[in-house]
Write a structure and sequence with these properties.
Length: 483
């Protein structure tokens, strides 16, 4: 007998138990409780945690009551309960600690909803698995009744979404954004464990289940829609990369395609142009003028000391020369400035010399003169600073091949309804669906199960399958262009 929190449904007086499970969405369970007056208090309050077990004792659902509707229709009055599974907690905003937050700060200030995703603590590029694990672990830390199972563990499930900036986004939104790069991924809860275990796998790693097509005693109706309109034989991605140097911009181009013999001429060729932010480079040009320090040359002193540069001064000779600097640098910087990145030696120096000369026929001997100079080993020229580079978008390696893997396979979309009085769990999320007894292609169609709806009382189960409706190659491109 089915039980809720250890009490059978008839003892509770509950009827019409139904459940709906969906890929990367809320698992919802609903039931009705006929009551004498709809205005009466419910037997279970909002926010109550519930556990529902099947007659064999296996847990079928664990979640939280989120809604209680009161219905009155003539003499019929009831309370309608709605409960949601652990994914309900994914509606919380994703938060990370402030890097410099003090433990003494108010808790509201210790967490930040503005974050960079897919970047590790050391600044290197992180995988989608690492980011998703961080998001799920925060949900658990916030109180979500769940544990983690297999989260993209396979080598073929490793991929690197772009490093992206996020602000005030929910955990659910961020997980879906990560999985735009893996549209065949499926996330589901195994409620047989306590707490429920969340798994996330790519379709290539899921187990296929074969069910009989319509006409068998347990199959009621089937709708199968082969999506030929979603199938392409070639994928060509053209990258327009905008590069900038000192505020001057230009475009360069790259192309990624698959299969190797793709030409782009076929009618069913998938072509997209992707705008990429290329590197932004900036550097400074600095012009300097340097002249040699010729302290033993009388003309050098005439240039430096205006009083000596006139016709009355004759017979100028230079005696002993001394310098206050210690490096003995050969040149003087006369225009511009030196920066450390130039790599030259420089010091403030004073050149001293004793000069002898004749001034208007009168002999002047051994007079001390001195001149301050900026001494250097630099030479005249234009020098360019090291380029400051802001790294642009990383071009995703193998994206065309990845898209081709998704688009070249025929996808099957539709519904399959099973009727079994025991409502046995013959198929669920985390499975692929094949159908026997119909078209031969259906035996190997490996349709991706997206949702399960169960009516416990009638034993009717509706299986919805096909590609994720909210994810596709165009979404991937748009996400990459607009992130």
């Amino acid at each position: 007998m089915w039980t809720l929190n250890g009490i059978s449904l008839p003892e509770w007086g509950f009827t019409g138990l139904q459940g709906q499970r969906a890929n990367l969405s809320d698992d919802v369970v609903a039931w009705e409780h006929p009551v004498p007056r709809a205005s009466s208090d419910p037997v279970l309050p909002p926010g109550a945690e519930i556990r529902i077990h099947r007659p064999d004792g296996v847990q079928w659902f664990r979640g939280t009551i989120v809604r209680i509707a009161r219905e009155s229709a003539g003499l019929s009055q009831s309370h309608r309960y709605t409960a949601m599974g652990p994914w309900y907690w994914s509606k919380k905003l994703f938060q990370i600690p402030w890097p410099s937050a003090s433990t003494a700060s108010p808790s509201l200030l210790r967490l930040n909803t503005h974050a960079l995703l897919n970047v590790r603590a050391d600044g290197s590029h992180g995988t989608a698995r690492e980011t998703i694990l961080a998001i799920l672990q925060q949900m658990i830390a916030s109180g979500a009744p769940m544990q983690l199972g297999q989260i993209l563990p396979g080598a073929n499930e490793e991929f690197y979404p772009p490093i992206t900036e996020t602000r005030d986004r929910t955990c659910a939104e961020l997980v879906r954004d990560q999985l735009r790069w893996a549209p065949s991924a499926v996330g589901w809860f195994d409620y047989a464990t306590d707490p429920p275990t969340f798994h996330l796998r790519d379709a290539s790693n899921l187990v296929a289940v074969t069910l009989p097509w319509s006409g068998s005693p347990t199959s009621e109706t089937t709708l199968i829609d082969p999506r030929y309109d979603l199938q392409y034989s070639e994928v060509i991605l053209k990258y327009e990369i905008l590069q900038t140097l000192n505020n001057q911009s230009w475009s360069s181009w790259g192309v990624d395609y698959y299969p190797p013999e793709a030409t782009g001429d076929k009618l069913d060729t998938y072509i997209q142009t992707i705008d990429m932010r290329g590197p932004v480079r900036s550097q400074h040009a600095v012009q300097i003028v340097c002249e040699p320090i010729l302290a033993n040359d009388p003309n050098w002193w005439r240039d430096k000391i205006p009083a000596l540069d006139n016709d009355d001064i004759t017979g100028l000779t230079v005696g002993s020369v001394e310098r206050t600097g210690t490096l003995g640098l050969a040149n003087e910087l006369t225009r511009g400035s030196l920066a450390p990145w130039m790599g030259f030696l420089v010091e403030e120096d004073t050149i001293q010399a004793r000069l002898t000369y004749t001034d208007q026929g009168e002999s002047v001997s051994d007079v001390l003169f001195e001149v301050p100079v900026t001494a250097t080993n630099a030479t005249t020229g234009i020098y360019y600073s090291p380029a400051r580079v802001v790294v642009g978008d990383p071009i995703p390696a193998g994206l065309a091949h990845w898209l081709w893997n998704q688009l070249s396979v025929l996808q099957y979309e539709g519904q399959h309804v099973i009727t079994e009085r025991a409502s046995a769990a013959r198929i669920g999320l985390g499975n692929l669906l094949n159908l026997s007894g119909g078209h031969p292609d259906w035996l190997t169609m490996r349709a991706l199960v997206q949702g399960i709806q169960e009516d416990v009382e009638t034993g009717r189960t509706r299986v919805t399958f096909g590609p994720r409706s909210h994810i596709g190659p165009t979404d991937v491109i748009a996400y990459y262009q607009g992130r």
